[in-house]
């Protein structure tokens, strides 16, 4: 995002701290995703773990003006939000379910993905009982681990050594052939299951998917015969500039045509990539080993991925340290000593009252915010740059802090 975008945004008119979601960018992202759907017949679901601002779901969902077929959820509450506010298909995956989780999920989902055959065996009776009263049965699948790493950061790599996510081939083969001949299609151990799922990517291109698919097909491809669908999971950076959409479509078409299955994808970031900013205000500039600008926002509470990944978010109009005339450190207002966002440079020294705009903050930051230290959550605003209309969606206050603790 450029300083021209900043001039159009006019950050001084928004509450601070505040998330501002760009409706036009959301629509642009959804249009790119719909191109993939139209070219391949794939169904794309939005990952709520990444973006769950339900006020803009009508822009994204096929039940509104958008194009996506539904949502994937990681909990009963996400699944309920998808059913109530998004519409379309609701798919669920978690590393483990409790019985209480399953009771709630079976009221809202269309697909349930299991992380192990033990979980599938434990809950398939509940699914079968629920399906006895449904015109359209809930479909179940198994998440597999192709043991093919594409992630650069182990914390975000579902196929890192020791990962708890997905069934590895040796376990899959043992359960798939249980009670009969492994040559059957589908194998007897997969009776009652409709599909397979993998998730190996994190902010990556179609080349990483192509390599993953080759590993998946080598290990698990033969088990797709007789199943209904294949889910490629998330982490696909489809709406990032330079992403190879042609290669993605070839990957989808290959699996679709070779195995006769419906292909699903579950991107999160691709839906809301570059569709939101975090507006913040300088409260003070203190002198340490270098100037430190204290902001009314916080890495610890308002953008925790800055500390977890870690990464240095972009600030519109800033440069790398030393690139522009005045360098400083940007830090949050919490009591955490490490509440530091990063080091930047600016054309002029910052002063109290200056507005700063952090980019690409709709994804993950909004869903991960906390009220540590009693810091208030950023306000949420919609902005349509085509008409310059703004709407305050939500402000947060004392009750939001108080009521989550007792």
Q: How would you describe the overall organization of this protein?
A:
Its EC number is 4.1.1.96. The protein folds into two domains: 3-20 and 275-403, Lyase, Ornithine Decarboxylase, Chain A, domain 1 (Beta Barrel); 41-271, Alanine racemase (TIM Barrel). Strands 1, 10, 11, 12, 13, 14, 15 and 16 form an eight-stranded mixed β-sheet that branches. An eight-stranded parallel beta barrel has the order 2-3-4-5-6-7-8-9, surrounded by four helices. Strand 4, helix 5 and strand 5 form a beta-alpha-beta unit. The two termini are 41 Å apart. The chain has helices at 3-9, 23-40, 57-60, 76-86, 99-105, 117-131, 169-176, 206-220, 245-259, 269-272, 299-302, 305-308, 365-368, 398-402; strands at 18-22, 43-47, 70-73, 89-93, 111-114, 139-143, 195-197, 229-231, 262-265, 276-287, 291-295, 326-331, 340-346, 355-358, 379-384, 389-394. The protein has 14 helices and 16 strands. It has 406 residues and is α/β, with parallel strands linked by helices.
């Amino acid at each position: 995002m450029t300083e021209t975008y900043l001039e159009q945004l006019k950050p001084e008119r928004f509450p601070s701290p505040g998330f501002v979601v760009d409706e036009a960018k959301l629509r642009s992202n959804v249009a790119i995703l719909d191109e993939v759907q139209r070219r391949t017949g794939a169904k794309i679901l939005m990952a709520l773990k990444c973006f769950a601002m339900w006020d803009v779901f009508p822009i994204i969902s096929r039940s509104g003006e958008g194009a996506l077929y539904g949502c994937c959820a990681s909990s009963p509450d996400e699944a309920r939000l998808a059913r109530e506010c998004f519409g379309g298909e609701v798919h669920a995956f978690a590393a483990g379910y409790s019985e209480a989780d399953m009771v709630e999920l079976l009221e809202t989902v269309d697909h349930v993905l299991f992380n192990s055959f033990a979980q599938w065996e434990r809950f398939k009776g509940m699914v079968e009982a629920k399906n006895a009263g449904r015109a359209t049965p809930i479909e179940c699948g198994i998440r597999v681990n192709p043991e093919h790493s594409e992630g650069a950061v182990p914390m975000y790599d579902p196929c890192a050594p020791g990962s708890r996510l997905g069934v590895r081939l040796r376990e899959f083969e043992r359960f798939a052939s249980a009670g009969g001949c492994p040559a059957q299609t589908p194998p007897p151990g997969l009776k009652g299951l409709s599909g397979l799922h993998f998730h190996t990517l994190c902010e990556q291109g179609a080349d990483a998917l192509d390599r993953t698919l080759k590993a998946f097909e080598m290990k698990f491809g033969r088990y797709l015969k007789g199943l209904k669908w294949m889910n490629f999971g998330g982490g696909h950076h489809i709406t990032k500039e330079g992403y190879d959409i042609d290669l993605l479509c070839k990957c989808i078409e290959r699996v679709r045509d070779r195995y006769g299955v419906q292909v699903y994808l579950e991107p999160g970031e691709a839906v809301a990539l570059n569709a939101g900013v975090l507006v913040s205000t300088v409260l003070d500039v203190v002198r340490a080993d270098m100037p430190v600008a204290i902001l009314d926002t916080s890495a610890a509470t308002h953008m925790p991925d800055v500390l977890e990944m870690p990464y240095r978010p972009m600030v519109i109009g800033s440069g790398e340290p030393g690139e522009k005339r005045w360098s400083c450190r940007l830090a949050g207002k919490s009591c955490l000593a490490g509440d530091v966002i990063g080091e930047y440079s600016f054309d002029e020294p910052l002063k109290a009252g200056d507005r700063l705009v952090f980019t690409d903050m709709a994804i993950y930051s909004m869903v991960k915010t906390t009220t540590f230290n009693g810091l208030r959550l950023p306000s949420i605003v919609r902005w349509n740059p085509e008409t310059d209309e703004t709407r305050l969606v939500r402000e947060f206050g004392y009750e939001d802090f108080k009521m989550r603790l007792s």
